Amino acid sequence: MEVPVLNQNGQQVSTVELPASIFEVEVNPGLMHQAYVRQMANARLGTHKVKTRSENRRSKAKWYRQKGTGRARHGSRNAPIFVGGGVAHGPRPRSYRKDMPRKMRREALRSALSALAADARIVVVDQLQLDAPKTREIASILDALVGEGTALLLMPERDENVEKSVRNLPNAWYLRANYLNIRDLLGYDKVVMPLGALEVIESFLG
Question: What pTM, to 2 d.p., does this model score?
Fold first, then answer.
């Protein structure tokens, strides 16, 4: 698949051939969904917890006498049926971690990139550089490259000027290409990548 290569002003300067083994594979929605669910599940801390009746600190004395009140017999105010008592069957600390083979994770990334490429949602630029962190400057560059909508910037390596400039934009996000993941790929309208980032992606997905 041949796509145009743009400069930072949005003007075409050349073309590049996207590797068919990455950007033209058969899209597998089920695999993409599995990878997305796994990533979101692994991001959960699982530190939720409520106190049971045995952990609740209230009086251990018998609430009221056993007989003669006309009420049901109760021995503790920690029971879940009372306000301030413990919680029955509440959440406990647990791990939500899911495993997925590396081959399947990478195939899910190929499916996502192929789906984006088929919809013309991948924008390739010759380079993306800023002399200093400047939100206004990166906003004008994205406006020329993407126009309206959200954008994911894939960089071949860390660039503090670009990272700090994108940080204040609500419709854009910065990511290094070797941290490519299914959630970020599916969460933005277009993916902007310099030629260097394309080489990084090809190195581990090609």
Answer: 0.85
Could you give the CA distance from residue 2 to residue 127 in angstroms, rounded to a whole number?
18
> Comparing C-alpha atoms, which of 46, 47, 49 is closest to residue 97?
46
CB atoms closer than 10 angstroms to residue 91: 11
Which tokens hold the place of 5?
A: 């290569």
Domain extent listing, the chain: 2-44+97-205, 50-90
What is the fold of 2-44+97-205? Answer: Ribosomal Protein L4; Chain: A; (3.40.1370)
Q: Give me the tens of pLDDT residue by residue for the chain, a chain 206 residues long.
A: 899 999 999 999 999 999 999 999 999 999 999 999 999 999 999 999 999 999 999 888 898 999 999 999 999 999 999 999 999 999 999 999 999 999 999 999 999 999 999 999 999 999 998 999 999 999 999 999 998 899 999 999 999 999 999 999 999 999 999 999 999 999 999 999 999 999 999 999 98
Q: Which two structure tokens, joined as six digits, stand for 44? A: 């959960």
